[in-house]
Design a protein that fits this description.
Low-confidence stretches: 121-263
Strand order of the largest sheet: 1-4-3-2
Helix content: 40-55%
Number of helices: 14
Strand content: 5-15%
Mean pLDDT: 54
Oligomer: single chain
Order of helices and strands: HHHHHHHEHEHEEHHHHH
Number of strands: 4
Length: 272
DNA sequence: AACCATTCCAACCGCTCAGTG
DNA sequence: ACACTGAGCGGTTGGAATGGT
């Protein structure tokens, strides 16, 4: 048996919102607020819409101080840095970019940034991220570099990439840090002159042993410190961090200790 | 001008999680 | 402890807009 639907689909309107619906919703929320109950809101506001649809429309479009239009360079870099750090946690990323919504950032990532980072040719003026960074280490999360569907593009710098390991890292391996062992989909790619490490964006695996919020804060805090320590090169050369640098920095932080402690505890409980 | 391909983004869907009784 | 409910989230999709031939 599936989950009960949140509303009667046959009685609610779907598709694009009309200006009339927008103003109804906006006026109602301006007057009464959401009341913490989105399901009841459309009926009260006189809208033939699902509560979820109203919520989405409000959060992504109607709510005050929403920014639309082009993302700035700083916003782009923030998105890239956070994606490399925490993966596709769009709501957390959005919380770092005032006025931007998770949906906006997700769309921007999927339609523009991802392509830019992977060096897929486009009409845009900038040279590709990989082209700029041939002699440096990069950290990219794997959802957009999945090794099982990895297909080099015709782009020269991208073509040079070759998977050298497709095995999930063993949790008993002593050569890599505990922080990265927990990632299920870590893959190392090498070019002639540089190393690219791609690790899973699915951070939930890492956080099974801790409160998700604490873990997110841990990652964000670590990355903020990382960014502040590399401010100049970060701003000038896009978001580019070495694997070892990130690992070392995060492990050196207090939160790193917290994480390792949690991990030790988890390993204890997993023992037969 | 007409057609087709691609890009973009608003909106939807289905899932997880937290709160509540 | 359990079931139920609503909020919130991330992945996916439909279709409008745009670009190319």
């Amino acid at each position: 048996m599936g989950r009960a639907p949140c509303c009667d689909k046959s009685k609610v309107k779907k598709g694009p919102w009309s200006p009339e619906e927008d103003s109804k919703l906006k006026e109602f929320i301006d007057k009464y607020g959401t009341g913490g109950n989105w399901i009841a809101l459309p009926h009260k506001a006189g809208l033939k819409r699902c509560g979820k649809s109203c919520r989405l429309r409000w959060l992504n479009y109607l709510r005050p101080n929403i920014k639309h239009g082009e993302f700035s360079d700083v916003e782009e870099r923030t998105i890239c840095a956070l994606f490399a750090s925490i993966g596709s946690r769009w709501s957390i990323i959005a919380s770092q970019l005032p006025g931007r919504t998770d949906n906006d950032i997700k769309n921007y990532w999927n339609t523009k940034l991802k392509k830019k980072l992977l060096g897929i040719p486009s009409s845009q003026k900038k040279t590709s991220f990989l082209q700029q960074q041939q002699h440096q280490q990069l950290v990219l999360p794997s959802p957009y570099l999945p090794y099982n569907t990895f297909e080099p593009s015709s782009n020269l710098s991208y073509q040079a990439l070759q998977p050298i390991s497709q095995e999930p890292l063993s949790s008993s391996s002593s050569s890599s840090s505990p922080l990265f062992q927990a990632s299920e989909k870590q893959v190392k790619l090498e070019t002639g002159s540089s190393t690219v490490l791609a690790f899973g964006g699915e951070m939930q695996n890492w956080s099974t042993c801790s409160e998700q919020l604490d873990f997110s804060n841990f990652l964000l805090k670590g990355f903020e410190e990382q960014i502040s320590g590399m401010q100049n090169s970060f701003l000038e050369e896009f978001s580019c961090f070495g694997y070892d640098e990130i690992k070392q920095h995060l492990l050196n932080s207090n939160n790193g200790e917290f994480f390792l402690e949690e991990q030790r505890r988890q390993q204890e409980t997993e023992k037969p």
